Amino acid sequence: MPTSTTSLASSPARPRTRSRGFTLLELMIVVAITGMASAAVAFALRDSTQTQLDREAQRLVALLEAARAESRATGVSLQWRATPGGFEFTDGIKPRPQRWDPTTLQARSETPVVLGPEPVIGPQTIRLSNSDAAGPSRWVTTDGLRAFEVRNAAPAGPTGAAP
Question: Which pLDDT score, from 0 to 100, does residue 129 have?
Fold first, then answer.
Protein backbone atom coordinates (compact mmCIF):
# COMPACT_ATOMS: atom_id res chain seq x y z
CA MET A 1 0.00 0.00 0.00
CA PRO A 2 1.47 3.25 -1.07
CA THR A 3 1.87 5.98 1.50
CA SER A 4 0.66 9.43 0.81
CA THR A 5 3.20 12.18 1.09
CA THR A 6 0.73 14.91 0.36
CA SER A 7 -0.21 15.42 4.00
CA LEU A 8 3.39 16.10 4.90
CA ALA A 9 4.01 18.27 1.88
CA SER A 10 0.87 20.35 2.26
CA SER A 11 1.60 21.45 5.85
CA PRO A 12 4.13 24.22 6.23
CA ALA A 13 7.34 23.10 7.82
CA ARG A 14 7.54 24.43 11.33
CA PRO A 15 10.64 23.70 13.23
CA ARG A 16 10.00 22.62 16.77
CA THR A 17 11.70 25.21 18.91
CA ARG A 18 11.31 25.73 22.57
CA SER A 19 9.68 29.03 23.50
CA ARG A 20 11.98 31.48 25.21
CA GLY A 21 11.32 33.25 28.53
CA PHE A 22 10.62 32.35 32.11
CA THR A 23 7.59 30.65 33.51
CA LEU A 24 5.50 32.30 36.16
CA LEU A 25 6.71 29.79 38.73
CA GLU A 26 10.35 30.61 38.03
CA LEU A 27 9.69 34.33 38.40
CA MET A 28 7.82 33.83 41.67
CA ILE A 29 10.70 31.80 43.11
CA VAL A 30 13.23 34.51 42.17
CA VAL A 31 11.05 37.23 43.72
CA ALA A 32 10.63 35.21 46.93
CA ILE A 33 14.37 34.57 47.24
CA THR A 34 15.13 38.25 46.61
CA GLY A 35 12.60 39.31 49.23
CA MET A 36 14.01 36.97 51.86
CA ALA A 37 17.57 38.08 51.13
CA SER A 38 16.71 41.77 51.38
CA ALA A 39 14.82 41.20 54.65
CA ALA A 40 17.83 39.36 56.09
CA VAL A 41 20.12 42.23 55.11
CA ALA A 42 17.77 44.83 56.61
CA PHE A 43 17.64 42.98 59.92
CA ALA A 44 21.39 42.47 59.92
CA LEU A 45 22.16 46.16 59.54
CA ARG A 46 22.74 47.91 62.85
CA ASP A 47 21.57 51.39 63.68
CA SER A 48 24.01 54.11 62.89
CA THR A 49 25.68 55.77 65.86
CA GLN A 50 23.83 58.99 65.17
CA THR A 51 20.46 57.23 65.28
CA GLN A 52 21.38 55.52 68.55
CA LEU A 53 22.57 58.83 69.99
CA ASP A 54 19.30 60.54 69.02
CA ARG A 55 17.24 57.72 70.50
CA GLU A 56 19.15 57.76 73.79
CA ALA A 57 18.89 61.56 73.99
CA GLN A 58 15.11 61.35 73.58
CA ARG A 59 14.97 58.59 76.20
CA LEU A 60 16.98 60.76 78.61
CA VAL A 61 14.61 63.69 78.04
CA ALA A 62 11.62 61.48 78.89
CA LEU A 63 13.31 60.13 82.03
CA LEU A 64 14.36 63.60 83.19
CA GLU A 65 10.83 64.93 82.71
CA ALA A 66 9.37 61.94 84.57
CA ALA A 67 11.85 62.46 87.43
CA ARG A 68 11.02 66.17 87.49
CA ALA A 69 7.29 65.38 87.74
CA GLU A 70 7.98 62.79 90.46
CA SER A 71 10.02 65.33 92.41
CA ARG A 72 7.21 67.88 92.23
CA ALA A 73 4.61 65.29 93.26
CA THR A 74 6.57 63.90 96.23
CA GLY A 75 8.31 67.09 97.32
CA VAL A 76 11.67 65.27 97.35
CA SER A 77 14.56 66.65 95.30
CA LEU A 78 16.14 64.21 92.82
CA GLN A 79 19.60 64.42 91.34
CA TRP A 80 20.84 62.98 88.04
CA ARG A 81 24.47 62.01 87.57
CA ALA A 82 26.48 60.16 84.95
CA THR A 83 28.08 56.83 85.86
CA PRO A 84 30.43 54.59 83.87
CA GLY A 85 28.27 52.97 81.21
CA GLY A 86 25.09 54.76 82.28
CA PHE A 87 23.54 57.19 84.72
CA GLU A 88 21.47 57.22 87.87
CA PHE A 89 18.79 59.18 89.64
CA THR A 90 19.13 59.48 93.39
CA ASP A 91 17.08 61.06 96.15
CA GLY A 92 20.02 60.98 98.55
CA ILE A 93 19.00 57.58 99.94
CA LYS A 94 18.64 55.04 97.17
CA PRO A 95 20.17 55.38 93.68
CA ARG A 96 18.26 54.15 90.65
CA PRO A 97 20.84 53.13 88.04
CA GLN A 98 20.15 53.03 84.30
CA ARG A 99 22.32 51.74 81.42
CA TRP A 100 22.84 53.27 78.00
CA ASP A 101 21.68 51.15 75.07
CA PRO A 102 24.98 51.45 73.24
CA THR A 103 27.59 50.96 75.95
CA THR A 104 29.94 53.36 74.16
CA LEU A 105 27.73 56.34 75.01
CA GLN A 106 29.01 58.91 77.51
CA ALA A 107 27.27 61.74 79.31
CA ARG A 108 28.83 64.82 80.88
CA SER A 109 27.45 67.69 82.85
CA GLU A 110 29.45 70.60 84.23
CA THR A 111 27.08 71.05 87.14
CA PRO A 112 24.98 68.52 89.04
CA VAL A 113 21.56 68.13 87.45
CA VAL A 114 19.13 68.78 90.28
CA LEU A 115 15.44 68.19 89.72
CA GLY A 116 13.86 69.94 92.65
CA PRO A 117 10.24 70.07 93.73
CA GLU A 118 9.99 73.75 92.77
CA PRO A 119 8.43 74.57 89.41
CA VAL A 120 11.55 76.51 88.35
CA ILE A 121 14.95 74.83 88.49
CA GLY A 122 18.29 76.21 87.38
CA PRO A 123 19.51 75.90 83.80
CA GLN A 124 20.73 72.36 83.14
CA THR A 125 22.85 70.94 80.31
CA ILE A 126 23.97 67.36 79.64
CA ARG A 127 26.24 66.49 76.72
CA LEU A 128 25.81 63.05 75.16
CA SER A 129 28.47 61.64 72.85
CA ASN A 130 30.06 58.38 71.82
CA SER A 131 33.39 57.36 73.27
CA ASP A 132 35.13 58.65 70.15
CA ALA A 133 35.31 62.41 70.62
CA ALA A 134 35.22 63.06 66.87
CA GLY A 135 31.67 61.71 66.56
CA PRO A 136 28.45 63.71 66.85
CA SER A 137 27.15 65.05 70.15
CA ARG A 138 23.70 65.89 71.43
CA TRP A 139 22.88 68.28 74.25
CA VAL A 140 19.92 67.75 76.55
CA THR A 141 19.07 71.16 77.98
CA THR A 142 16.52 73.20 79.85
CA ASP A 143 16.50 76.82 80.88
CA GLY A 144 14.91 75.80 84.18
CA LEU A 145 11.38 76.77 83.26
CA ARG A 146 10.70 74.88 80.04
CA ALA A 147 10.86 71.14 79.52
CA PHE A 148 14.11 69.40 78.65
CA GLU A 149 14.89 69.25 74.93
CA VAL A 150 17.50 67.75 72.61
CA ARG A 151 19.79 70.09 70.69
CA ASN A 152 22.33 69.34 67.99
CA ALA A 153 24.62 72.19 69.07
CA ALA A 154 25.79 73.42 72.45
CA PRO A 155 23.46 76.04 73.92
CA ALA A 156 24.80 79.57 74.30
CA GLY A 157 26.06 80.76 77.64
CA PRO A 158 28.37 79.40 80.31
CA THR A 159 26.27 76.27 80.93
CA GLY A 160 26.53 75.30 77.30
CA ALA A 161 30.31 75.25 77.07
CA ALA A 162 31.41 71.88 75.83
CA PRO A 163 33.55 70.01 78.34
Answer: 87
